[in-house]
């Protein structure tokens, strides 16, 4: 049985459609209920819906053999997993944003609010810029508006959230998309099915990347 962790939500649905097209279907997953686990016994597949930021934990610890998570999570938490392929969906970017009237003063330590503390520290370290990272868990856009921070480092997809809060992108740090990841041990003892999955998915996503 191949255990597959999918991120619950819109991205997960897009990704499942991709897996289905690649020949890894599990029809019961489309039943509209609150179940979290679905099996296709004929194909030896078991899917489960996981909170997006938890997928890498399931895969790292072997509760799932493979899973799908954003490159942001891989860069931030450095889970001990193999990154198999870029699925070319869930595209967005990690960016620095600020109020429109913000002007950086390099003589002062920059205050940056974010859910992505490691990415933020590494980015400013690469610039040699002193930064005070303020770790928040959500609604990051509030921080510069209320004077808690000078900038934010966050995911920007459509840009609507920034726009509606009178913020704008100052600098794009890294492009993000969904990645297929695998547990390291499972990559060895289930290598046949996992490589078949990667090959079939790559055929479909080649044009998306
Ligand atoms: C992300 C991010 C922004 C928003 C950007 O939040 O933190 O708030 O999406 O998207 P946009 O550019 O299309 O407006 P998410 O929806 O993941 O929720 P969260 O803050 O609860 O993690």
Characterize the structure shown.
The chain is α/β, with parallel strands linked by helices. A six-stranded mixed beta sheet has the order 2-3-1-4-11-5. Strands 8-7-9-6-10 form a five-stranded mixed beta sheet. It has helices at residues 10-21, 55-60, 71-77, 117-127, 142-145, 160-164, 184-189, 191-205, and strands spanning 2-7, 37-40, 45-50, 66-70, 82-86, 92-99, 110-114, 131-135, 151-156, 167-176, 178-182. The model has no long low-confidence stretch (mean pLDDT 96). The protein is built from eight helices and eleven strands. The site of 1-O-pyrophosphono-5-O-phosphono-alpha-D-ribofuranose has 10 residues, from strand 9 and helix 6. Residues 138, 140, 154-161 line the site of 1-O-pyrophosphono-5-O-phosphono-alpha-D-ribofuranose (PRP).
Strand content: 25-35%
Topology order in helix (H) and strand (E) letters: EHEEHEHEEEHEHEHEEHH
User: What's the helical proportion of residues?
Assistant: 25-40%
Largest sheet: 6 strands, mixed
Task: Give a nutshell description of this structure.
The chain has 209 residues and is α/β, with parallel strands linked by helices. It has 8 helices and 11 strands.
Layout of strands and helices, then pairs:
Elements: E1 2-7, H1 10-21, E2 37-40, E3 45-50, H2 55-60, E4 66-70, H3 71-77, E5 82-86, E6 92-99, E7 110-114, H4 117-127, E8 131-135, H5 142-145, E9 151-156, H6 160-164, E10 167-176, E11 178-182, H7 184-189, H8 191-205
Parallel strand pairs: 1-3, 1-4, 7-8, 7-9
Antiparallel strand pairs: 2-3, 4-11, 5-11, 6-9, 6-10
Bound molecules: 1-O-pyrophosphono-5-O-phosphono-alpha-D-ribofuranose (PRP).
């Amino acid at each position: 049985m191949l255990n597959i962790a999918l991120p619950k939500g819109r991205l997960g649905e897009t990704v499942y459609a991709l897996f289905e097209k690649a020949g890894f279907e599990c029809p019961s997953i489309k039943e509209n209920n609150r179940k979290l686990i679905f099996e296709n016994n004929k194909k030896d597949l078991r899917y489960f819906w996981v909170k997006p930021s938890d997928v890498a934990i399931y895969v790292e610890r072997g509760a799932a053999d493979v899973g799908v998570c954003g490159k942001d999570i891989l860069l931030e938490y450095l889970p001990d997993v193999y990154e198999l392929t870029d699925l070319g969906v869930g595209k967005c970017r990690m960016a620095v944003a600020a109020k429109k009237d913000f002007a950086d003063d390099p003589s002062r330590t920059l205050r940056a609010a974010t859910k992505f503390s490691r990415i933020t520290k590494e980015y400013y370290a690469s610039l040699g810029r002193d930064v005070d990272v303020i770790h928040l868990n959500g609604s990051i856009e509030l921080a510069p508006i209320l004077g808690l921070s000078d900038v934010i480092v966050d995911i920007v997809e459509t840009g609507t959230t920034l726009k509606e809060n009178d913020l704008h992108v100052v600098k794009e740090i890294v492009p993000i998309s969904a990645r297929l990841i695998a547990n390291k041990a499972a990559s060895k003892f289930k290598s046949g099915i996992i490589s078949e999955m990667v090959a079939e998915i790559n055929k479909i996503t080649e044009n998306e990347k």
